[in-house]
Design goal:
Radius of gyration: 20 Å
CATH topology of the largest domain: Rossmann fold
Number of strands: 15
CATH architecture of the largest domain: 3-Layer(aba) Sandwich
CATH class of the largest domain: Alpha Beta
Strand content: 15-25%
Largest sheet: 9 strands, mixed
Shape: globular
Helix content: 25-40%
CATH superfamily of the largest domain: NAD(P)-binding Rossmann-like Domain
Strand order of the largest sheet: 14-13-12-11-7-10-9-8-15
Number of helices: 10
Number of domains: 2
């Protein structure tokens, strides 16, 4: 393991519990947290600062300009992330952000411009570091299903509204279910298939959770196509309360000679760890357990990239590309029109 004893990260915004996993992963890799910055009261920041044995502060500027911070971690309100990310990049500091990076293309373009100084921007696209994803990638590269033609992904989650902060029910701050959930599958689709989408069409609905707190888009449907595999995605907050897992998420790749599907929660009627179901022209259907398949450690990769310049599976260009496609899908959903000429609009 790289000696990261002098590596220090600063948390700028703790509005989503993902920041806890992000911080714990860095600590496991040898990092120290300088402070947790959070101007708004919440149930995450103070306990996290206590766990990390660091101060809870309201203004990150002094530390950002101190020359002592190697990485900024942010899980701020989605619409406010560009401000935090741009401030860190402008101070010459790499950024590790919870997804989504922004709620619209204007915010992402601000981040992209700030990253022109060569600093790194990573988003919490955690599926790239799952054994099931890497095993599926090997199957595709080995030709087990032939040439990929289409990806179908569904990502239902349980909302539990009472546990969610008020800002999630303000679309201008939250950015929608498409931007929040479907982004994972869009990133995996691009990484696994090397597709070059030329158009994208999407729609988003508020179906179940309008309330006095506001409303939240809880169902999104997306289709995209062009050169390489086509993509069809659904994300929603509609997992029934009594389903025994957070959601029956699936990621299926259909090829010229077979189909492989990740079942992220295992079999529907007996949820558990992820598995892969493979059926092809060559063999009868088979269920494969990906547990133990070798994968890089995201936090060690990040540490080695910052301290020694080593490459990562997830690059800044990947993050900008996946986030661009997701935000362009949201533009389609909001306008009711297909977005075309994506090559001119996707950032990298």
């Amino acid at each position: 393991m790289t000696n990261a004893s002098v590596m220090r990260f600063l948390i700028c915004g703790a509005q989503h519990e993902h920041v806890v996993s992000m911080a714990r992963g860095l600590v496991r890799a040898g990092w120290t947290c300088a402070a947790v910055t959070e101007a708004l009261p919440d149930a995450i920041a103070a306990p996290l600062a206590n766990e990390l044995s660091c101060p809870l502060i309201s203004d990150p500027a002094p530390l950002l300009n101190s020359g002592t911070i190697n990485l900024v971690v942010t899980a701020s309100i989605n619409a406010q992330k560009p401000d935090c990310v741009v401030a860190a990049l402008s101070a010459g500091i790499d950024v590790f952000a919870d997804k989504p990076l922004a709620v619209d293309m204007a915010g992402l373009q601000r981040i992209h411009a700030a990253a022109a100084n060569g600093r790194n921007v990573w988003a919490w696209f955690s599926l790239r570091y799952e054994p099931a994803s890497h095993l599926l990638r090997k199957m595709i590269l080995d030709g087990d299903i032939g040439r990929p033609l289409a990806v179908e992904a569904v990502r239902p989650h349980r909302l539990s509204p009472a546990s969610r902060p008020d800002w999630m029910f303000d679309d201008s701050l939250y950015g929608g279910v498409l931007n929040d959930l479907v982004c994972h599958d869009i990133d995996l689709y691009l990484w696994l298939t090397d597709a070059l989408p030329e158009w994208i069409a999407a729609t988003e609905y508020s179906t179940r959770f309008p309330s006095e707190r506001g409303s939240i888009t809880d169902l999104a449907l997306v289709m995209t196509g062009g050169s390489g595999a086509a993509g069809c995605f659904r994300g929603d907050w509609l997992t029934p309360g009594r389903y025994p897992a957070h959601g029956d998420c699936r990621f299926r790749v259909v090829g010229t000679e077979g189909t492989a599907e990740i079942r992220w929660a295992g079999p529907t009627l007996d949820p558990g760890p992820p598995d892969i179901v493979l059926y092809s022209d060559r063999s009868a259907p088979v269920r494969i357990d990906p547990a133990g398949f070798p994968v890089p450690d995201l936090f060690q990769e990040l540490t080695d990239c910052i301290s020694m310049g080593r490459p990562m599976i997830l690059t800044s260009s990947d993050v900008f590309r996946s986030t661009s496609l997701t935000l362009l899908a949201r533009e389609s959903a909001r306008s009711g029109r297909t977005v075309r000429d994506l090559s001119r609009q996707i950032l990298s």
